[in-house]
TrEMBL record:
Transmembrane region(s): 40-61, 81-102, 178-206
Gene Ontology CC terms, in alphabetical order: plasma membrane
Bilayer topology term: Multi-pass membrane protein
Protein name: ABC transporter, ATP-binding protein
Coiled-coil zones: none
Lineage of producing organism: Archaea, Methanobacteriati, Methanobacteriota, Stenosarchaea group, Methanomicrobia
UniProt entry tagged with the keyword Transport: yes
Domain ABC transmembrane type-1, chain residue ranges per copy: 42-333
Keyword set, alphabetical order: ATP-binding, Cell membrane, Membrane, Nucleotide-binding, Transmembrane, Transmembrane helix, Transport
One Gene Ontology term of the molecular function aspect: ABC-type oligopeptide transporter activity
Organism this protein belongs to: Methanothrix soehngenii (strain ATCC 5969 / DSM 3671 / JCM 10134 / NBRC 103675 / OCM 69 / GP-6)
Length: 614
């Protein structure tokens, strides 16, 4: 009890400050709902007023009926009274039917509105996910924020609007009920209102507790999701069976869920106890008022019809207070939780377009320059690239080689502006990449990353996605397929280019890793870009396919600026210039012949590989 009082004091201290923020957040949610489905929002609002007033109209008709029956006993003209009674009964039926009709219409409006709002919010979430920097994907905090936002996105904004409309409806009902009860006694009204205060406090306190618990459990929740994914996704299915890992992950999952369940249960039990005390106080006020009304009736101060009406109003008042409470506290809770969604939507990309973008040179005339680049990954204390300078002339093919983790892929990520270097600059024809529109720059780059994507879409779409700015052109798709060797896979696909790749969907056909890599190559080849980058493009190809791709590559890269990353030195020897990276800096550079003559690290690596391939 002491804890509840302390928490109540804590909340009351914060109320003036919270209120401004509350209103801002609620307004933002209301705007979101409005933009998602303006028509349905109008319908919902229009239905609120009759829903608030009709219950009272029903009570009043009931009073008329009871009073009519009471006067019927003493009236000489029983026929006239019966006629009047029947009219009142008909009126009661009419009011009831109207209530049902309006309720049904409100339900339909609410259902449509919910679906539209949920889909619209999900769309905003998707748009944000693709707009933010890659850097966010490196941070567990980002995944926590996304996880919480996803949990809230589907229903929280509409929940807020429902609570608001319900609040308006309850406020109308409450105002009319209070006005009616005032006719009986002001003391009843005061007692009822006072008795509802403990309930409000309990709800607010526990909403805050629930919110804090939800935030603190996010990591555990995500861990359990991760374990679920390990147990159900295809990527892990082979190892899980072979190493018999199923029971280990299942046990971990069960332990985590058990912990979460226990925490939630403790919270629910404690809330139920507090609720019980609050409701007992409220019930005492209601039944005390009922006793008072009964006494007044017995004294003859009010009619039997009045007693029926006031009794009804009291019962209704109790229900309205309950509903008012739940919509008020629902709003308080919603306001707390909607911040999860806003936290995600308010993430700002650091890599932004400049105010006055310069066009990307087309054709590139002088080339690409990396000028004294140094870079560390966000949150990492080690330097990944240290004072790198590279010059690539248009039409040149350069190769980046070096051990694992030497920084080759990172250099490519900087060129694509997935990250920005902390020192130095990258320029095309002397124009800093930061002065170009990000999308314009990326349109000029075609990349096959090591961890290329495997889209569970048709083969044609898998290739076309490389040039998705234009319509699907089967001529171009077929050419890219020939250049990358995909046409060989085609022969065994029953529905040719229409075949869905992967096993996610019905009739999907899976490919081998090497075949998927060829599809990724085709996706890069179809793109009409001036820069082409291949990060270990042939690592999964058999030697014959690899030789073919490289033979084609020089031809395809003609007129383009190309960067190839490779571990098999035999395949990169055709490059115009080879850069050997070591621990984030350039250790050697030159043509294959120059580097061999240097007899340095490159020559040593080449010899080792040559022996292994012999
Ligand atoms: N997202 C990241 N966050 C922090 N460090 C990273 C990240 N990605 C890579 N690194 C680190 O940066 C260094 C360079 O990585 P990079 O992927 O550029 O190497 P690489 O030369 O392409 O290696 P490989 O030949 O194995 O593909 C490595 O030490 C790696 O651990």
């Amino acid at each position: 009890m002491r804890a509840i009082i302390l928490e109540a004091l804590h909340i009351s201290k914060r109320l003036p400050h919270v209120r401004r923020e509350d209103l801002k957040d609620l307004w933002r949610a209301a705007l979101l709902v409005w933009k998602s489905a303006p028509g349905w929002a109008v319908a919902s609002i229009a239905l609120v007023i009759p829903q608030g007033v009709l219950p009272l109209a029903s009570l009043y008709v009931m009073k008329l009926i009871v009073d009519c029956v009471a006067t019927g006993y003493s009236s000489a003209d029983s026929e006239a009274v019966t006629g009047q009674l029947l009219m009142f009964v008909a009126l009661a039926i009419l009011v009831e039917l109207l209530s049902i009709l309006i309720q049904s219409a409100a339900n339909i409006a609410s259902e449509f509105q919910s679906t539209l709002v949920s889909d619209h919010t999900q769309d905003i979430l998707h748009a944000k996910s693709v707009a933010i920097d890659l850097e966010y994907y490196e941070s567990p905090k980002y995944y926590d924020t996304l996880h919480r936002a996803q949990q809230e996105a589907a229903y929280r904004p509409i929940h807020i609007v429902r609570s608001l409309t319900q609040l308006a409806q309850n406020a109308i009902s409450m105002a009319s009920t209070v006005a009616l009860l005032f006719l009986a006694s002001w003391a009843i009204v005061v007692a009822l209102l006072m008795a509802s205060i403990p309930g409000i406090l309990v709800q607010m306190i526990y909403s805050g507790k629930l919110y804090r618990w939800q935030v603190s459990r996010t990591e555990k929740d995500r861990k359990s999701w991760y374990l679920h994914w390990l147990l159900t996704d295809k990527s892990f299915a082979k190892e899980i069976r072979l190493f018999d890992l199923g029971s280990i992950f299942r046990d971990r999952y069960t332990a985590l869920r058990e912990q979460l369940r226990k925490e939630k249960l403790d919270l629910s039990v404690s809330k139920s106890k507090a609720n019980l005390a609050a409701q007992a106080i409220e019930s005492m006020a209601v039944f005390g008022s009922l006793a008072f009304l009964a006494m007044e009736g017995m004294k003859g101060n009010i009619t039997i019809g009045d007693i029926t009406m006031y009794f009804g109003a009291l019962v209704q008042g109790k229900a309205v207070i309950g509903s008012l409470l739940s919509s008020l506290t629902g709003l308080y809770e919603d306001r707390l939780f909607i911040t999860n969604l806003y936290d995600f939507l308010d993430l700002e990309p650091n890599i932004k377009d400049p105010l006055k973008p310069v066009k990307v040179p087309r054709p590139i005339e002088k080339g690409i320059t990396f000028e004294g680049i140094s870079f560390s990954y966000p949150g990492s204390s080690s330097v990944t690239l240290n004072d790198i300078s590279v010059k690539i002339k248009p039409g040149q093919v350069i190769a980046l080689v070096g051990g694992n983790g030497s920084g080759k892929t990172t250099l490519i990520k900087l060129l694509c502006r997935l990250y920005d270097p902390q020192k130095g600059r990258i320029a095309i024809d002397g124009v800093d990449l930061k002065d170009m529109r990000v999308s314009d720059l990326r349109r000029e780059i075609s990349v096959v990353f090591q961890d290329y994507a495997q889209y569970n879409l048709s083969l044609a779409e898998n290739i076309w996605l490389g040039s998705a700015a234009g319509p699907l052109d089967m001529g171009k798709v077929a050419k890219a397929a020939r250049d990358s060797g995909v046409d060989r896979i085609l022969k065994r696909l029953e529905t040719g280019y229409e075949t869905t790749l992967g096993k996610w969907f019905d009739k999907g056909t899976d490919l081998s890793i090497g075949e998927w890599q060829k599809v990724a190559l085709a996706r890069a080849f179809i793109r009409d870009s001036q820069i082409i980058i291949m990060d270990e493009p042939t690592s999964s190809l058999d030697p014959k396919a690899e030789a073919e791709v490289f033979a084609k590559f020089r031809e395809l890269a003609k007129g383009k600026t190309a960067i190839v990353i490779g571990h098999r030195l035999s395949t990169v020897r055709m490059a115009d210039c080879i850069y050997l990276l070591n621990d984030g800096h350039i250790a050697e550079k030159g043509t294959h012949e120059e580097l061999m003559a240097l007899k340095g690290e490159y020559a040593q690596l080449f010899e080792i590989q040559a022996v292994n391939y012999r």
